[in-house]
């Protein structure tokens, strides 16, 4: 297992404690199984797709859960019927239960999932709230005191309008 020293990053960043904790947690994952195989694709500027190979599983045997920035994909095969007495001479198709976890960033939402030809496609999109988007901050000139503008007053200042009174 590799351990990365993130202390140099602490000197030049503010408020990224959660990111560093997540990196430490991801580095601590030990002995993760390679089953089932998966792809992670970027399908647009703020759109992503996770594709998991789940051959032999039905939609009833699969589950998706998004909780606290962790997307969990689970698969559990139904037990065989009592009267099914199949004797395998070779069993190369894995039909074992699995749980695969993916860390997703803040503001990433699952918009849909579909099972197609043994592949589970999970569509994700990053939707950044207006309050989190970049905005211009006016700079006061000379001896004028700096104004603290809220988001709605900022839009007025950007448009060149005088600030409205806050209610």
Written account of the structure:
This protein has 167 residues and is α+β, with helices and mostly antiparallel strands. The protein folds into two domains: 1-32; 35-79 and 91-132, Sandwich (Immunoglobulin-like), CATH 2.60.40.790. It has three helices and seven strands; from the N terminus they run ααβββββββα. It has helices at residues 7-10, 17-27, 151-158; strands at residues 38-44, 47-53, 62-67, 70-75, 98-103, 108-116, 119-126. The protein has a four-stranded antiparallel beta sheet, with no helix packed on it. It is elongated, with a radius of gyration of 25 Å. The termini are far apart. The model has no long low-confidence stretch (mean pLDDT 80). It comes from Camelimonas lactis. Keywords: Stress response. Belongs to the small heat shock protein (HSP20) family. Residues 29-142 form the SHSP domain. Residues 141-167 are annotated as: Disordered.
CATH class value of the largest domain: Mainly Beta
SSE topology string: HHEEEEEEEH
Oligomeric status: single chain
**Distinct helical segment count:** 3
Structural class: alpha+beta
């Amino acid at each position: 297992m590799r351990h990365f020293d993130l202390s140099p990053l602490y000197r030049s960043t503010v408020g990224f404690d959660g990111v560093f904790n997540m990196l430490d947690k991801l580095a601590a994952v030990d002995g993760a199984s390679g089953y089932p195989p998966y792809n992670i694709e970027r399908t647009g500027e703020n759109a992503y797709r996770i594709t998991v190979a789940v051959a032999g599983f039905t939609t009833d045997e699969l589950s998706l859960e998004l909780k606290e920035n962790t997307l969990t994909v689970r698969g559990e095969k139904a037990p065989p019927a009592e009267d099914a007495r199949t004797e395998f001479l070779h069993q190369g198709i894995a039909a074992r239960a699995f749980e695969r976890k993916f860390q997703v960033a803040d503001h990433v939402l699952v918009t849909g999932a579909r099972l197609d030809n043994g592949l589970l496609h999970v569509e994700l999109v990053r939707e950044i709230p207006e309050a989190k988007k970049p905005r211009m901050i006016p700079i006061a000139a000379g001896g004028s005191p700096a104004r603290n503008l809220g988001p709605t007053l900022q839009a007025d200042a950007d448009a060149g309008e005088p600030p409205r009174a806050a209610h």
